[in-house]
Amino acid sequence: MTPDEIRIELAAIGWTGAEFARQAGVDGRQVLRWLHAEYEIPEALAAWLRDLAECHRQRPAPRKTVRWTS
After folding, report:
1. What domain count does the chain have?
2. How far apart are CA 41 and CA 33, in angstroms?
3. Which DSSP string corresponds to 2-53?
């Protein structure tokens, strides 16, 4: 998974790199290394991120709607 693909998947989920690190249980510096192509993200983690992003694309979080009354 390329750094751009990681960024696209994180955007689909609505996560920052820091939130991804927290959810994945890794150090934030490791995520930065993946985002700067210093290291390759492990395939199992990449697959999890892809699957999670696809779930968010198919079933986005409901948005609160505001009803205006007079």
Report:
1. 1
2. 9
3. -HHHHHHHHHHHT--HHHHHHHHT--HHHHHHHHTTSSPPPHHHHHHHHHHH
Measured between its terminal Cα atoms, the distance across the chain in Å is: 52
Distance, CA of 23 to CA of 61 (rounded, Å): 18
pTM passes above 0.85: no
The domain containing residue 7 runs over which residues? 3-58
**Which pLDDT belongs to residue 62?**
74
Domain-located, residue 22: yes
**Arithmetic mean of pLDDT, 23-49:** 96
Lowest pLDDT segment from 10-14, 25-29, 54-58, 64-68:
64-68
